[in-house]
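Quick one:
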Amino acid sequence: MGRKSTKDAANSFEDYFKRATSPMMTLLLLNEKPMYVYKLSKELEKRSNSTYKMTFLYPVLYRLQQQGYVEEFSQEITESHRTRNYYSITEEGKKYLDFMIKKYKQLLFAVDTVISDYKSVDDNAGFQET
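Output:
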């Protein structure tokens, strides 16, 4: 009756996880160097072996910008004065990134501890990656 397909449940879990971790992942990359949105997206996809794809980076960047963790600036990229918007992490953003990584590691450790003795009754329990 109110049951979702296994595909929906697996995608929902992944979507929620990405939504929760996307600010941290974005700040992590920007901590290395300023980037524009397409480069951020491709870099994340490359480093995660195409597992972690973020298609909606603009809302994440806008939120981080409103919170003072990211700055936007334009840079001319062609002789015809075409510009590209870059994003860089602020000092406050670096502090927030440190906080998020510590929290993430604490939560990851806690979850790993709780599930360490789990024994699956059925491999993949009917869930398949898409």
